[in-house]
Amino acid sequence: MEESILIGKDKFKISEDETARRELRVVKVHDDAIQIQEEVHGIIALVGASSSVNIKKEELKNLIKVAKEKFGWTDICE
User: Fold this and answer.
1) What confidence score (pLDDT) does residue 62 get?
2) What does the pLDDT read at residue 44?
3) CA distance readout (Å), 51 to 28, 55, 61, 73
4) pLDDT of residue 48
5) CA 30 to chain centre
6) What are residue 58's phi and psi, to 5 degrees?
7) Is 24 buried (19+), middle (13-18) or exposed (0-12) by CB count in 10 A?
8) What is the four-CA torsion angle of 78, 37, 56, 44, rounded to 10 degrees?
9) Fewest C-beta in 10 Å: which of 9, 12, 62, 75?
10) CA–CA separation, 1 and 67 (whole Å)
């Protein structure tokens, strides 16, 4: 698998003593498939049966740019 590309990051306060760090990354897993990875550091994650990724507008713009420029997906629109 190729190295992931950072498309977004931020920090948010979860208590008076702790700040969590979030990074959103994308990696090409196949010619027609990508994987979005959301990493959150600084809090205990609960295990569940489903998974979701929160993506901000600027992160989506970055994702489209990476898909076009790095992965060669020229047939997608902005």
Assistant:
1) 92
2) 60
3) 19, 13, 22, 26
4) 44
5) 17
6) -65, -35
7) buried
8) 170
9) 75
10) 16
Domain boundaries along the sequence of the chain: 5-69
Q: How far is CA 67 from CA 3, 41, 63, in A?
A: 14, 26, 6
Rounded Cα distance between 69 and 18, Å, is 37
What's the CA gap between 78 and 58, in Å, rounded?
A: 12
Tokens of 22: 């979030």
Structure tokens at 18: 């702790």
Structure tokens at 59: 């992160």
**CA gyration radius for the chain?**
14
